[in-house]
Design a protein that fits this description.
There is one protein chain. The chain has 150 residues and is of the alpha/beta class. The protein has one domain (2-110, 127-148): 3-Layer(aba) Sandwich (Rossmann fold). Helices cover 29% and strands 27% of the residues. The protein has five helices and seven strands; from the N terminus they run βαβαββααβββα. The chain has helices spanning 8-19, 37-47, 85-88, 91-96, 138-148; strands spanning 2-5, 25-30, 62-65, 72-76, 100-104, 118-125, 128-135. The protein has a seven-stranded mixed sheet with strand order 1-7-6-2-5-4-3. The model has no long low-confidence stretch (mean pLDDT 90).
Length: 150
Amino acid sequence: MKCQLADATATEQLGARLAASVTPAVVYLIGELGAGKTTLVRGFIHALGYSGKVRSPTYTLVEPYACERCPVFHLDLYRLADAEELEWLGLRDMLAEPALMMVEWPERGNGVLPPADLTIYIGYSGEGREARLVSASEAGRQLLKGLESA
């Protein structure tokens, strides 16, 4: 599935639409620096009712959000030196309970991260962006249902 994103607002709205069908899953976010990965996550988390600031976990590597419908872990692995560091970050604990895990730069966690239920590729397209969404499981297809109903 492809979506054209004219601006940051459209990117946040895509995240919000995906949140309509939230389910525990692993979502990979793939794109260049500044492509809009964190903006999409912000829209998703705010749509789940979280009213605080949604920060990029560039330096903390993980930001947890206690959303009522589903806990969310937002990971940014850009600064990860070794995939084994995910164990130190508490990956096993994050996976112990049903939650949504949204992972930027997932290739840095190869061999340690669980496979993606949904992969979102965000790239530049003219003046805006384009998102391509690929589901790989029932949980991934469930997340995409929020796009079908909008």
